[in-house]
Automatic annotation (TrEMBL):
Belongs to the aldolase class II family. MtnB subfamily. One of its GO terms (molecular function) is methylthioribulose 1-phosphate dehydratase activity. Keywords: Amino-acid biosynthesis, Lyase, Metal-binding, Methionine biosynthesis, Zinc. It comes from Effusibacillus consociatus. Binds 1 zinc ion per subunit. This is Methylthioribulose-1-phosphate dehydratase. Zn(2+) binds at H110, H112.
Length: 218
């Protein structure tokens, strides 16, 4: 089999995986008003990380609808790997920055939810939000009893290279996610499975926290 055929198959596989993730998250209402974006590192036969290709969602589409043009391939600079009319996510440079900065990063997911936005607004002044003693912290592969994690929060800069740089400044190797104030969350993992598990755990913690705050006010 030629390396072109292998690469083509890897691209198709990545698109299919992203399609399944997109469908699952859309069913949960995690892509309101065309927001959110997803990417996956494409497994190719070459080992050079700097030559990696990334499958990413096309910008501005209704992510609850399945079409033949929902994804495209970009390089680590965020440039389309082949001539295309399709526009990669406006936030592609955040994805590419994470693939370059986080070791073994293989998938990056971004969603806007009411709970992640509320938590980001409530705790931005502290630079992060801390969760302690939750069973679901184990989803981040942290197993000590009573463990705590702090999810960093950055300002929502309109300039994407600035936003990407700010995210890279606050990375914590134990915590695979960063909140952006009144915007959403970026989450990653060593596989699509791990990134999805991480995102579900973060969203559980945010929902729990917001509901606890409401209940404690009554
Ligand atoms: C329509 S609001 C959301 C966008 O501004 C952006 O934050 C977002 O998440 C989606 O952008 P996209 O270019 O579709 O990947
Ligand atoms: Zn966004």
């Amino acid at each position: 089999m030629s390396s072109n055929t292998i690469e083509l198959e890897a691209i198709q596989q990545a698109f299919e995986t992203l399609r399944r993730v997109k469908e699952t998250f859309a069913a949960r209402g995690w892509f309101p008003a065309t927001s959110g974006n997803l990417s996956l590192r494409i497994k190719t036969d070459h080992q050079d990380r700097n030559r990696s290709l990334i499958a990413v969602t096309v910008s501005g589409k209704d992510k609850s609808v399945h079409t033949p043009t929902d994804f495209l391939v970009v390089d680590l600079e965020g440039k389309p790997a082949a001539a295309s009319q399709l526009k990669p996510s406006a936030e592609t440079l955040i994805h590419t920055a994470l693939y370059q900065k986080v070791s073994k990063c293989a998938a990056v997911f971004h969603v806007h939810t009411v709970s992640n936005s509320l938590v980001s607004e409530l705790y931005k002044h502290r630079g992060g939000v801390t969760f302690k003693g939750h069973e679901l912290i184990k989803a981040f592969d942290i197993w000590e009893e009573g463990a705590s994690i702090t999810v960093p929060i950055v300002e929502n800069y309109a300039c994407i290279p600035t936003l990407a740089a700010e995210i890279c400044k606050v990375l914590d190797s134990r915590v695979p996610g960063v909140l952006i104030r009144n915007h959403g969350i970026y989450v990653w993992g060593e596989s699509e499975f791990a990134a999805k598990r991480h995102l579900e755990a973060f969203e559980f913690l945010f929902d729990y926290h917001v509901k606890l705050l409401i209940l404690s006010k009554n």
